[in-house]
Amino acid sequence: MNAHGKVHRYGDNVDTDVIIPARYLNTSSHAELAAHCMEDIDRDFVKKVKPGDIIVAGRNFGCGSSREHAPIAIKASGVSCVIACSFARIFFRNSINIGLPILECADAAQAIADGDEVEVDFDTGAIKDVTNGKTYRAQPYPPFLQNIIAKGGLLNSIVK
Amino acid sequence: MGMTMTQKILAAHAGLPEVTAGQLIEAKLDLVLGNDITSPVAIDEFEKCGADSVFDRGRIALVMDHFTPNKDIKSAQQCLRTRTFAHRYDITNFFDVGRMGIEHALLPEQGLVGPGDCIIGADSHTCTYGALGAFSTGVGSTDMAAGMITGKAWFKVPSAIRVVLTGKPKKWVGGKDVILHLIGQIGVDGALYRSLEFTGEGLKSLGMADRLTIANMAIEAGAKNGIFPVDEITEEYVEGRFQRKPVVYTADEDAEYDETITIDLSALRPVVAFPHLPSNTKTIDEAKGVKIDQSVIGSCTNGRIEDMRAAAEVLRGRKVADGVRCIVIPATQQVYLDCIREGLAEVFVEAGAVFSTPTCGPCLGGHMGVLAQGERAVSTTNRNFVGRMGHVDSEVYLAGPAVAAASAVTGCLTDPADLEGRN
Ligand code: SF4
After folding, report:
1. What does the DSSP 8-state code read for residue B59?
2. ipTM of the complex in this document
3. Which residues of A touch B395 (CB under 8 A)?
4. Which chain A residue's Cα is nearest to B383?
5. Which of B2, B203, B301, B343 has CB 3.0 to 4.6 Å from B255, enough for a Cys bridge?
6. What is the pTM of this model?
């Protein structure tokens, strides 16, 4: 599995309140959530984002509430992958559980610039900044989580 | 090698003699929780995968607290979806308007959670029940759906930070100040993926309300859970309340901790967290004087009767300043009733405050006190992220109930001690 797209870059501690503000939590429609994705940190995000694009961020991405609406909004907006120095733990769980690929790689997260074109190979954890040719490697998932991802999310992995 | 308290609870629920940090396990759950925002998403997932039964209808709690009483048509639809599900599967612990309270205040109060439990909730502040000596942690809606079906969840066993509390807090210093101080020290990801285990002789002077406030905000330090040892204060609280048998786990003497942090409670001053991170803390002495438009007293962090009493002590015989909106929200029906019986409701209304039915309301910018552009609130809630309480250009200052009440009286951040001896 691969991802390829343009990078939208953000800083440390991007919280779930700016990813999808609570005023939109009175719906669980994926399309509606996507329409407000990142609204309180980057008003133009939904206009700029193209299918396949990649979010790159600093430490503790997705901190705050447990709302699964946050990774759902990101996934439904077309983003193919999030690369960060680290993720808040509930966001990490939720992303795995709903099948939004996320990668922890501090080197890549610090170096990749906004607007760069990036290629990711999920099987190997290889990240390539196509704009300047630099490559990075993220930690691969443990087999337990690989199984959840391979089955297409947590519920598919528990249902026989 | 010894285990931490959290590791012992996880090992027992995974049916293993021993677990170590980093190990992936599957654990049995004593309770699965959801609210009016997260349950509909979980129910979608539940139905999508073709499930047609829950693991145990007595071990699921569904609480309608965030946008209730329904603030608009969409939230009404969300509650309807959850209510229909609760009826269909005959869920014992379904808390609708009139019976509800903010989930993390309600569950301990109703005795649905207690010592030794392993609990997940589709709400990040599920970590609150660590105050009772339980392992409890926030998860997402998909985990909740899986939990409702199987009664199990996967966990990575966390390592831990030990927080040793010493001394006795001075007047006007409470649980909120302890946890804000800690978050200010270690940062919003200072305990990422780890447990915060509280210990030390200072615990003796922290009642259950203080402990619940502290455990509640473990997540604001990035922690998986916060946990307190079971002592006489815990036993007294759960006695005659907890519906199951308490099981007491204690950390091994040789348990390994990533680090130990010591906090001298007697040296703490009331703390305020400035926008836009809970770690952006200052003492009230440095914070004094910041002008506010609104004061919110309530939430799962500080909406218990002890918080109401602290706020009423400050507001009694005083008036909310002109131009300030003070909104008091007891966290549960029981707290609401106690406020009436103890005469606190009267104190609030006479001071010129709003006294509301239990709801999360303004805590997440939902309703009952949403902020306009450029407005500033002092709030006893737990998050002050950008736009948390309303407009993206509004600000939230986090504090304990006494500081929030004193600030409502003067119209700017105020040390409650400064009001003593004046009206
Ligand atoms: S009071 Fe606030 S933090 Fe607590 S459960 Fe409600 S919205 Fe969440």
Report:
1. G
2. 0.91
3. none
4. A64
5. B2
6. 0.95
